[in-house]
């Protein structure tokens, strides 16, 4: 027992729990967790009840920077929408283009949040990533479409203004 | 822990606590069984398999269907639903224009809308304006939370009612425009 404790303290943290689990297993010989099928999001847990949950690696790009970017983008949409209301899209095409780009990015982030909330890849190992990549493909298509419409046609703000008063 | 399935526990208990006079007869009758009970010998590791098989069959208690409707979560899901619907419209139109630019020109669209009867025009404006205004005002409420304001229950409810009022007023204004 003393030798395995020494071993556990010297190994890096990721391996320490493994040796701890082996010690438990040899002591009680009850759980055969390696043979039990793990059901993602279901009532069958990975490992034993004493194993901690796995977290994604900490990263500012997917964490605080993503959050701040999302809020700043949403905040910037407010003055842009107000400006688009009072001007016409043809007089300020740059504003129109910026608004279109920001709207598409805002929509993409919103859809991505819905995918992460309802079809997370931890519980839906195939459908989750499929939907994520479908969304990314669709967003690329939408960006091209918005660019084409703003360049070859009258632009989003003009269209809405014309349809509204048609 | 011995995981052996034996079906005679209650039976033998009944025999043991029966009055002394009739005990032998009861014992004989109950042990010569009406229904055959199988005794299955299992290793200790099988207990986890049995437990997990039971867990998979267990139902989950109702939560989503029975939670009391409240302004907090109703406005939150409405914000997501309106945003999703408006974004789906944007994505749908943009992809349609990408695929068939000659069908979805602005001239075609404006002509099509102009040809609709008046009541359909007002309905269409209502269907577009209400989600947009709600998402706009509730978005401002959400951004104020992100800045640390209105995070109390009172603050959230007051802002929620203000959002509903602003939505109604601005929807009417937009539809009449």
Automatic annotation (TrEMBL), chain A:
Cellular component per GO, a single term: mitochondrial inner membrane
Pfam families: CybS
Main localisation: mitochondrion
An individual GO BP term: tricarboxylic acid cycle
Positions annotated to bind heme b: 106
SUPFAM superfamilies for this protein: Fumarate reductase respiratory complex transmembrane subunits (SSF81343)
One Gene Ontology MF term: metal ion binding
Membrane topology field: Multi-pass membrane protein
Coiled coil (UniProt feature): none
Keyword annotations: Iron, Membrane, Metal-binding, Mitochondrion, Mitochondrion inner membrane, Transit peptide, Transmembrane, Transmembrane helix, Transport
Subcellular location: Mitochondrion inner membrane
InterPro entries: CybS, SQR/QFR_C/D
Binding-site residues, a ubiquinone: 118
Membrane-spanning intervals of the chain: none
Domain of life: Eukaryota
Family label: Belongs to the CybS family.
Protein name (database record): Succinate dehydrogenase [ubiquinone] cytochrome b small subunit
Organism: Suillus placidus
UniProtKB/TrEMBL annotation, chain B:
Segments passing through the bilayer: 159-176
GO cellular component, one term: membrane
Keywords from the UniProt entry: Heme, Iron, Membrane, Metal-binding, Transmembrane, Transmembrane helix
GO-annotated biological processes: mitochondrial electron transport, succinate to ubiquinone; tricarboxylic acid cycle
Location (main, coarse): membrane
Originating species: Suillus placidus
GO MF entries: electron transfer activity; metal ion binding
Topological category with respect to the lipid bilayer: Multi-pass membrane protein
PANTHER family per the UniProt record, alphabetical: SUCCINATE DEHYDROGENASE CYTOCHROME B560 SUBUNIT, SUCCINATE DEHYDROGENASE CYTOCHROME B560 SUBUNIT, MITOCHONDRIAL
Subcellular location(s) per record: Membrane
InterPro entries, sorted: SQR/QFR_C/D, Succ_DH_cyt_bsu_CS, Succ_DH_cytb556, SuccDH_FuR_B_TM-su
Signal peptide residues on this chain, from the entry's feature table: none
Name of the protein this chain belongs to: SDHC, cytochrome b subunit of succinate dehydrogenase
Domain of life from the UniProt record: Eukaryota
Keyword Nucleotide-binding attached: no
Gene3D superfamilies with a match to the protein in the record: Fumarate reductase/succinate dehydrogenase, transmembrane subunit
């Amino acid at each position: 027992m003393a030798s395995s404790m020494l071993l556990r303290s010297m190994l890096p943290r990721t391996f320490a729990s493994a040796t701890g689990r082996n010690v438990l297993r040899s002591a009680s010989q009850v759980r055969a967790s390696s043979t039990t099928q793990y059901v993602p999001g279901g009532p069958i847990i990975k490992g034993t009840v004493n194993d901690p949950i796995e977290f994604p690696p900490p990263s500012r790009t997917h964490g605080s920077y993503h959050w701040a970017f999302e809020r700043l983008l949403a905040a910037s949409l407010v003055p842009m929408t107000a400006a688009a209301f009072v001007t016409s899209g043809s007089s300020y095409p740059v504003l129109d283009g910026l608004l279109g780009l920001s709207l598409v990015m805002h929509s993409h982030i919103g859809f991505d949040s819905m995918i992460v909330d309802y079809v997370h890849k931890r519980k839906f190992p195939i459908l989750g990533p499929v939907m994520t990549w479908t969304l990314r493909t669709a967003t690329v298509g939408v960006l091209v479409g918005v660019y084409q419409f703003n360049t070859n046609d009258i632009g989003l703000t003009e269209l809405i203004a014309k349809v509204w008063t048609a | 822990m011995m995981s052996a399935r034996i079906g005679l526990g209650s039976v033998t208990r009944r025999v043991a606590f029966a009055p002394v006079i009739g005990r032998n007869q009861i014992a004989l009758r109950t042990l010569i069984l009406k229904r055959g009970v199988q005794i299955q010998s299992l290793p200790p590791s099988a207990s986890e398999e049995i437990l997990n098989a039971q867990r998979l069959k267990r139902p989950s208690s109702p939560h989503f269907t029975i939670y009391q409707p409240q302004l907090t979560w109703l406005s939150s899901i409405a914000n997501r639903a309106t945003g999703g619907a408006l974004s789906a419209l944007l994505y749908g139109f943009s992809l349609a224009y990408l695929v068939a630019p000659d069908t979805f020109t602005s001239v075609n669209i404006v002509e099509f809308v102009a040809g609709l009867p008046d009541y359909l025009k007002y309905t269409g404006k209502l269907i577009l304006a209400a989600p947009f205004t709600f998402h706009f005002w509730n978005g401002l409420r959400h951004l104020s939370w992100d800045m640390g304001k209105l995070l109390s229950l009172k603050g959230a409810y007051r802002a929620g009612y203000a959002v509903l009022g602003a939505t109604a007023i601005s929807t009417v204004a937009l539809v009449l425009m």
